[in-house]
Amino acid sequence: MPEILSAAACNLDANILAACLPLMEESRLEAIEWSFDALFKVQQIPSWFLELLTAYSNEQRLIGHGVFFSLFSGKWRQEQADWLKQLKKVREEFRFDHVTEHFGFMTGRDFHHGAPLNIPYTKTTLDIGRDRLKRIYEACECPVGLENLAFSYSLEEVKRHGGFLEQLLEPVNGFIILDLHNLYCQIHNFNIPFEEIITHYPLDKVREIHISGGSWENAPNSPLKKIRRDTHDDAVPAEVFHLLENTIACCPHLKYVVLEQLGNALTTEESRTIFYNDFGKMENIVKKKNTPGISSYQSFLPSSPVITGKIIEDEILHHQQLELSAILESATSCEEAIQSLTRSSLAHTAWQIENWEPYMIDTAIQIAQKWKK
Predict the structure, then answer these.
(1) CA dist list (Å): 306 to 47, 138, 165, 302
(2) Bridge partners of 39?
(3) pLDDT tens string for the chain (373 positions)?
(4) Residues near 367 by beta carbon (within 8 Å), at least 6 away in sequence
(5) Is the dihedral of CA 124, 128, 129, 134 positive or negative?
């Protein structure tokens, strides 16, 4: 296994930067992950932040993490075309060691606002996802990866997720960000052991690992059930550090381990100290697992030219996504959502809404309504 680098998500946010500054001053932040598309609409980026990005870019230690592309939207949007143009522009200024995106489609207006939710695992969604990944590669000209999703509607989806990721990435020889807090959410929400869920992921495709914190919510339809949410607004749980210890050795091509936290959770000196200590715990685990003297990494670059043709769309999927978003954004209860779903075009289709857990439907309602624009 080559050397693994300890990194943090570092964006143009005063609280995040304040939390990361001590690590930079101690020369411990070996790479930074930048959510580049969060700044697509920012007219004036401070010169000092550009200098920070340039410094890591020059050392090939800058990795890009997209948030808003909405990989599986059934209909191609102008916002997606603009996103790719902006990525090409950013790539001309900075050298990314790799670029990643989130799995799923966005709820909210035009799917470009909100949080990513799952899609049916079909040939249609596979073809759309592959088409979009090729276009991302064409724009960035570096390795392309996808992050595993924290949210699922059913245990069957959880078990199929890793295999579908592997199929998606094949045309671009892409890689996986294995987000361990996302995995922790699935483990808890569906009562599936780590030893089982990890077998469903192609660990030889993992180039990056994320760790983060989240939150608990009560499930209205199951009073004794608590739902784990990937909200990135708290310290890393001990269980996630334990997952990290057990996972690193299983990922032979791992290059980065990244600590993530939102800036609005780093507003106090105490919270920034906890972040600093969490980084230290992560760093110590990484150091124990590192293999000195080995420096070669798998490239995760396509073995043959990537060719994009006509944009792939699906009107039926697009209509279903619009209908699902509208149901989730307007439902006043899980029961109301279930009734609407059974009358919708999603009923008795590959979405398999009949197998969705009520407590996860309720979670989807909360996600969609939180991000509704």
Answers:
(1) 35, 7, 18, 7
(2) none
(3) 679 999 999 999 999 999 999 999 999 999 999 999 988 888 889 999 999 999 999 999 999 999 989 999 999 999 999 999 999 999 999 999 999 999 998 765 544 456 678 999 999 999 999 999 999 999 999 999 999 999 999 999 999 999 999 999 999 999 999 999 999 999 999 999 999 999 999 999 999 999 999 999 987 766 668 999 999 999 999 999 999 999 999 999 999 999 999 999 999 999 999 999 999 999 999 999 887 665 568 999 999 999 999 999 999 999 999 999 999 999 999 999 999 999 999 999 999 999 999 999 999 998 888 877 5
(4) 107, 114, 115, 117, 151, 328
(5) positive
pTM recorded for the entire structure: 0.95
The answer to whether the beta carbons of residues 63 and 11 sit under 8 Å apart is: no
> In this structure, what are the phi and psi dihedrals at residue 61, rounded to the nearest 5 degrees?
-120, 20
